[in-house]
Write a structure and sequence with these properties.
heterodimer; A: mainly beta; 7-stranded mixed beta sheet; B: mainly beta; 6-stranded mixed beta sheet; 5-stranded antiparallel beta sheet
């Protein structure tokens, strides 16, 4: 089946630094990828929809200048958490849809646990 | 945004028993999917049921969908300790992102 690779799996950084998370579709092209955030013991919340070659669409309450999304190719989307603060500590997970498939199944990366000190 | 509620929020059962989780949603949907998440890890896709389907089976899993009530249920039969995880339902409309429910934490003790 389709594979989505997400790196890094875990990152610890100091407050004020920026962190980049990569999401790659390994064996399919994805014009659209989705970024989610999950706080401990909570569900996944959609942050933004990443569109190849155009600006990302952010959900209400998500700061686009804080969470920079770049989808420069059909297989790679990146999420950069700029000037990270402890409240940004969370589990970030990306997903993509294989448009060759007729179903609506999304493939998920393995997630990135961000800890901001 | 979240689509709806799952109940129960937490469920504790013994191995061999059946586990039933329910999910309600708010808007019209194209399909409904169930995912499992082990603690601190990524998501595992369990089953997808389309809006024109009422019931679907996959191994020990049985999913029902009632679009008139905007609800779905996931039944895990003959549960095992390895089924211990969080279970989420998620809905989407055609081509859109999945919107997840709040999840049910299942604990199966041996």
């Amino acid at each position: 089946g389709a594979v989505v690779s997400q790196h890094p799996s875990r990152v610890i950084c100091k407050s004020g630094t920026s962190v980049k998370i990569e999401c790659r579709s390994l064996d399919f092209q994805a014009t659209t990828m989705f970024w989610y955030r999950q706080f401990p013991k909570q569900s996944l919340m959609l942050m933004a929809t990443s569109n190849e070659g155009s600006k990302a669409t952010y959900e209400q309450g998500v700061e686009k200048d804080k969470f920079l999304i770049n989808h420069a190719s059909l297989t790679l989307s990146t999420l950069t958490v700029t000037s990270a603060h402890p409240e940004d500590s969370s589990f970030y997970i990306c997903s993509a849809r294989d448009q060759r498939l007729t179903n609506e199944k999304l493939f998920f990366g393995s997630g990135t646990q961000l800890s901001v000190l | 945004s979240q689509q709806g509620e799952e109940d129960p929020q937490a469920l504790s059962i013994q191995e061999g028993e059946n586990a039933t989780m329910n999910c309600s949603y708010k808007t019209s949907i194209n399909n409904l999917q169930w995912y499992r998440q082990n603690s601190g890890r990524g998501l595992v896709h369990l089953i997808l049921i389309r809006s024109n389907e009422r019931e679907k089976h996959s191994g020990r899993l049985r999913v029902t969908l009632d679009t008139s009530k905007k609800s779905s249920s996931l039944l895990i039969t003959a549960s095992r300790a390895a089924d211990t995880a969080s279970y989420f339902c998620a809905t989407s409309q055609a081509g859109t992102a999945l919107i997840f429910g709040k999840g049910t934490t299942l604990s199966v003790s041996s």
